[in-house]
Amino acid sequence: MLAAVTLVLLLTVALALARAARGPTVFDRLQSCSTIGTCAMLLLALLGFLDDRPEFLDLALTYGLLNVIGVIAVLKYFHPAKSRSKGAGKPGEER
Length: 95
What we know:
This protein is mainly alpha-helical and 95 residues long. The protein has one domain (2-77).
C-alpha cells in the first residue's frame, strides 16, 4: 500500500514537472512548483514513517512552511501592477 502511495506521488511530481515546462504563464509554473514541494513534503513524511524516524515529520513541516513562504514571495514579486486608465485623475478628484 505504501509503495502504491509513493508511486502515485512520484507520478504527480512527473506531471507537475511537465506542467512547469509547458505552462504558458508564470502562475502555472508557480503552481506546479508548489505541487512539487507539497509532494516532496509528503514523500519526506512517508519516508520518516517507513524508517520509524519521527524527526522526518518535523523536517517535512519545515519544508512545507518554506514552500508556502516561497510561493508568497514569488507572488509578491510577480504581482501585476495596477494601472490607471488614461484620463483618470487622482482618487476623489472631479473631472
